[in-house]
Each structure stands twice: as C-alpha cells, then as structure tokens.
C-alpha cells in the first residue's frame, strides 16, 4: 500500500531527491576530488589496468548502462559500451582480462543479468554489480560492487533505482578518471555537480503540474517518437521505454541524426516527438532537425535548458536545470518519468503493475 500516495510509482518518483542523496553519501572524497567506492575491491593499480568497460543489464538498467558508458568514456577515456544482458551469453562473448564488467540490476535477481555475470566469471573475467537489493543473487555472485541504497522499489517501472544507477556510474567514472588523466579541477567540478543533483531533481519535480497537461495531450497519440543524440540518446531510449511500459502506446526512440534516414516518413500531426535537447555542442544541429519535424506538421515537446534558442520552433518547451554537462542526462530523464506516469494515469491503467510485465524476471 503506497500510503498517502496515489501509486508506488508516484511515491518513488517523489522520493528521488532523498534517495539520490543516499547513494552519494560517504562516497565522494573532496580532498583528492575522486570517488570513494570501497566495494569495488580494487586498488588504484587495478583500476588503472582496466582497458575496456562492458556494461550488462536489461530494460531500464540497460539504458542507464548506455548513459554510464558515455560517462566512463568522457571522464576516464576508457572505451565503454552497454549491451542487453539477455543477448550477451548467446554470442559466445570474448572475455578479456583487462576489461571491467559491470552488471546493473535493481532487483539483483534478473535471470538474464545473473547468467551474464556467471558467463563472465566462468571465463575468468572480473565483474562488479550496481545493485539495489542487498544480498541478492547478482550481489552475491559479483566480485565487488556498488549498492544503490534507493530503498525498496515496488512499481515495475524503475525510477529512483535508475537515478541511483546513473549516480553510481558517475562516481565510478570519476574514480576511474582520477587514476588517469582527469584533472583535480574537473574532479572538484563533478563532485560539486553531483552534490547539487538532489536539489535540482527537486526543482524538476516542482514542475509536475505543467507536465500533467503535456502528458494528457501525449496520451491521445497512438504512436510517438523520443529522440536525442549522444548523451541525450539513452535518455530518449529510457523515456520511450517508460512511456510504452505503462501507457501501452507505441513509443520509439531514435537518434535525432537518423530521423532523416528513415522515420521522418512517419512524421505527421498525429505522431508527436519528444526531443531531448541539452545545451551542448550539438544544440544547433538538434534544433535544425526539429524544424524538419515541425515542417511536416509533427507536434513537438522539447526537454531542454533555459539558454537553448529554439529558433522560433513551435513546440511545448520543458526546461530542466543544468548540472555539469556530463551529469545532464539524469535531470533530462526526470520529466520523462512524469510524462509517462501522467499519460498512463489519464488512460486509466494499472500503473504499478503494467499488463504482461513483472518487476523482476527470474526465469528464462
Ligand atoms: C524488467 C522490468 O523486466 O526488468 C524493467 O519490467 C526492469 O522495468 C528490468 O528495468 C530489469 O530489472 P532489474 O531488477 O534487473 O533492474
């Protein structure tokens, strides 16, 4: 029973400022401007020996893994990528000794992720877990890890656990960066950015009423696109995932840059696009692509920063506060949780237990 809240998902969305604070606590080292993740069971020499990072997870944990890969490449300059854990073991994956494997899972019990961990370990690889549930199967099987401290998450659609996965990756990337070439100034900048996130998440949540109206309009569409680029693309993937899981509308994520290579043919007044447009090096190209959508009559919702000039674009504008640019994805994700939530509510669905889905899939 979610108490005074209308659902667990809503309760868990609103808990994020507090739960985000918990994953950071005691894990930032101001003096050396680095992360302090004791549970990795790796010393500085071992961290420096890592040549590649492979992230494994399912569903939302896979998409946040893509955000994590970008953080690691940006801050530590180590090649990193995320893969669906459900596919991994079927590719006879090549396990390398200088690769760090990262299994991401709220429940710690998802069978596909657990079997991926076992495949890595059987072949002699080193795996850490980013896991919420203490003592869960993945936490027990991994060589080390970062507990997420999000608290119990009941709604099938992950919100507060996902946010803490992102923060876990940010601290890991910071620590990997600081044993390499990330400067102390950048380390300090990121620590300040991380510490400011709970307050900024609170600011996004305060805009909920405005998002209700936007969500109710989106709920009327049978099909939607979520688009973004580079840091914004996994945000779009996660936004589409949330929307389809609980609203049962067809929501498809695309790289904004790929629209012209296919899906632009589908744009019409009946197909809204939710675009992720942070103030970054791609902003002008992003805005130009959105004008292509508007020219074909496609309704637009743009999740963006105050400073972004949309060049007269006709669009519903949702503004989030800026963090450090590497940390922006998580603040861009929060309004998408609320859009999915309020669309599903408008449609009268069982939000906490969407049809055909389980909170954790523990059988193959
Ligand atoms: C799914 C849920 O099947 O499992 C998703 O429907 C979730 O919402 C995914 O993201 C992964 O779960 P976990 O517990 O491994 O993070």
Automatic annotation (TrEMBL):
Q: What is the official name of this protein in its record?
A: Glutamine--fructose-6-phosphate aminotransferase [isomerizing]
Question: Keywords in UniProt for this one?
Answer: Aminotransferase, Cytoplasm, Glutamine amidotransferase, Repeat, Transferase
Supply the EC number(s): 2.6.1.16
Please list the residue ranges annotated as the SIS domain.
Answer: 43-182, 214-354
Q: Give its localization.
A: Cytoplasm
Q: Which GO terms describe its molecular function?
A: carbohydrate derivative binding; glutamine-fructose-6-phosphate transaminase (isomerizing) activity
Question: What portion of the full-length protein is represented by this chain?
Answer: 246 to 609 of 609
Q: Name one GO biological process term.
A: fructose 6-phosphate metabolic process
Q: Enzyme group, top EC level?
A: transferase
Sorted alphabetically, the Gene Ontology cellular component annotations on this record are: cytosol
Q: Catalyzes what? A: D-fructose 6-phosphate + L-glutamine = D-glucosamine 6-phosphate + L-glutamate
